[in-house]
Write a structure and sequence with these properties.
Layout lengths: L7 E3 L3 H14 L4 H19 L5 E5 L3 H15 L4 E5 L8 H8 L14 H4 L16 H7 L3 E5 L11 H10 L6 E4 L21 E5 L11 H5 L1 E5 L13 E4 L21 E5 L7 H12 L4 E7 L3 H5 L7 E5 L14 H7 L5 E4 L7 H13 L4 E3 L2 H4 L15 E3 L3 H8 L3 H6 L1 H12 L2 E4 L5 E3 L5 E3 L12 H14 L4 H23 L7 H7 L23
Parallel strand pairs: 2-3, 2-4, 4-5, 5-6, 6-7, 8-17, 9-10, 9-12, 10-11, 12-13, 13-14, 14-15
Antiparallel strand pairs: 1-8, 15-16, 16-17
Helix pairs in contact: 2-3, 3-4, 6-7, 9-17, 9-19, 11-12, 14-16, 17-18, 18-19
């Protein structure tokens, strides 16, 4: 596997983070207690910002995540704050650094989930022992009396489904009134994949240590993380941090080709677009316009012959069109024999965008499959171009040129023969599977759009562009990918670059219009030129907001 490019900010999985902790402690001599102290101090600062006044509840597990929570409790109590420490396991079960921080804790003893001090816990009658079925509302009532709840139950190493008192604590947090601050990762979110096997904490904010984790940026985990803050806890430089997943940064803008004084429409790149059907002429037109606004020197839209006048008169005079044979005649559906006409046009070079508005008639499906296999150009396949390959994904591995697929969850489900719910629950797993089977770069769309290379690398979109959650923005992304492919960029860089431009344009369109709700796909297209500018260095690494791609 190739190294991650410099424009990806590494997202470190649980195994990598365990290795970094071991390296810092064993090889660089940084005491574990010192790392825990620094982590607790960072969470304390975040807690004070979120709730400057009022009582705080800290839910602690029995591992190092709970130890971090105990540091926070001590620091807040030392500053005069009222703090309830709620442990889901008997405090005597804590070991190592977590045990040391329990012994350092001043003030009242930790409580159980029923609000009873642990020293008194075993003296109660069995009927009131606080089991999962006992007094189910009491933990929520206990938490509701606080200005802030800190989730220090489960750390980055957790996988699977929470049980017993941990599950009860998470259930109590669901719908609780106070804001929730999670330590390192929201409890029960898989830090390495973003998967959530059952209920998981939905945090208002998450403070994570040393580097962000994939599960904080990949859904469904991303939806649980809230605003993410990455903090330095004193791990020395040079930590072994090889990873395969990274967050797309605006440094990528510097990698995108720019027109110079000697540029021509030919050197700027030719995009050939094949699609359209009766009632769906808007899709190829928007993809074509997006290619132009993203930098393509010229664009040719190959559409059904009877629809050519509609596309040619769509208000884009710069767009060239080519009429394709229909099957049946005058049906508005591209026929399989039209493949030869597109291949002839492809002799000019550039890149091909296949699928926007294509439709699902049998001749159109045959056209899409035949053209995808025969086209000698780098090709982005979207919409019904993807649907045409349901059950035939592996065939794309035989293509001679680079391939990019841009499915949403439903389309990827059809390609992999599973339902969209399965895709959404395991987004990282399935986008990698699709890339491996097809030999293509696959962009699984969403607020966390995942760009997977066949070699296993994954680029994650920063998202936070809710204006993109509208019809037609998927066609816009297709056009931008095609424009960047036409410049000669490799498929992974071109696709990640298109995703970034798409997100930045979606944000800008929302600002221009006053709100995300009024954004339409054409607004995103018109915003594309303005977001090609490389941004100043030093932007924050946090995030807020959300949204999706159409």
């Amino acid at each position: 596997m190739d190294e991650l490019p410099s424009w990806l900010e590494p997202l470190l999985d649980a195994e990598t983070m365990r290795g970094i902790d071991r390296w810092a402690i064993s090889e660089r001599g940084v005491p574990g207690l010192e790392l825990m102290e620094s982590a607790g101090a960072a969470v304390t600062r975040a807690a004070e910002r979120m709730a400057p006044d009022g009582p705080v509840a800290i839910l602690c597990g029995k591992g190092n995540n709970g130890g971090d929570g105990l540091v926070v409790a001590r620091m807040l109590r030392d500053s005069g704050r009222e703090v309830d420490v709620i442990c889901v396991a008997p405090p005597e079960q804590l070991t190592g650094d977590a045990r040391t921080n329990l012994e350092r804790l001043p003030g009242p003893a930790p409580l159980d989930l029923d609000g009873v001090p642990w020293p008194e816990h075993d003296e109660r009658p069995a009927a009131s022992s606080g089991g999962a079925g006992s007094q189910p509302q009491w933990p929520r009532e206990l938490l509701g009396a606080h200005a802030l709840v800190i989730d220090a139950l489960l750390g980055t190493g957790f996988q699977g489904e929470p049980r017993d008192e941990v599950a009860r604590a998470i259930a109590a947090l669901d719908g609780a009134d106070p804001p929730v601050l999670s330590v390192d990762v929201p409890s029960a979110v898989d830090a390495s994949t973003g998967e959530v096997a059952a209920a998981a904490v939905r945090a208002t904010a998450t403070v994570t240590f040393h580097a962000a984790k994939p599960g904080l940026w990949i859904n469904p985990g991303k939806a649980h993380a809230g605003a993410v803050e990455v903090v330095d806890i004193g791990i020395p430089r040079g930590a072994p941090a090889e990873g395969a997943i990274g967050l797309i940064s605006e440094a990528l803008l510097a990698e995108l080709p720019e027109r110079g004084r000697g540029s021509t429409k030919f050197s700027s790149g030719h995009v050939l677009l094949a699609g359209g059907s009766r009632g769906l002429t808007g899709a190829p037109t928007m993809a074509a316009r997006a290619s132009m606004r993203a930098g393509a020197g010229y664009v040719t839209a190959c559409v059904p012959a009877s629809l050519q006048p509609i596309v040619a008169s769509s208000g884009v005079p710069e767009l060239m069109t080519r009429a394709l044979e229909e099957d049946p005649p005058q049906s508005g559906s591209i026929g399989e024999r039209a493949c030869e006409e597109v291949l002839e046009a492809a002799q000019r070079g550039g890149a091909l965008a296949l699928g926007p508005g294509l439709g699902r008639s049998e001749p159109a499906v045959a056209f899409a499959r035949r053209l995808a296999l025969a086209a000698p150009l780098p090709t982005v396949i979207d919409a019904d171009g993807l649907n045409a390959h349901a059950g035939h994904l592996h065939e794309l591995a035989g293509r001679s040129a680079a391939t990019v697929l841009t499915p949403h969850a439903g389309e990827l489900g059809r390609l992999l023969s599973c339902d969209s719910g399965e895709i959404e629950a395991h987004r990282l797993q399935h986008v990698r599977e699709a890339a491996a089977r097809s030999g293509a770069v696959v962009a699984l769309k969403g607020d966390d759009t995942l760009v997977a290379s066949p070699d296993g690398r994954v680029a994650v979109s920063p998202g936070a562009a809710p204006g993109l959650a509208t019809a037609g923005t998927g066609d816009v992304l297709t056009g931008v990918v095609a424009a960047l492919l036409a410049t000669g960029l490799d498929a992974f860089t071109a696709t990640a670059g298109a995703v970034l431009l798409h997100v930045l344009a979606g944000r800008l369109a929302a600002r221009r219009g006053g709100s995300p709700e009024g954004v339409i796909a054409s607004d995103v297209i018109e915003a594309l030129p303005a977001v090609r500018t490389v941004r100043a260095a030093g932007r924050g690494r946090g995030r807020d907001g959300g949204g999706g791609n159409g």
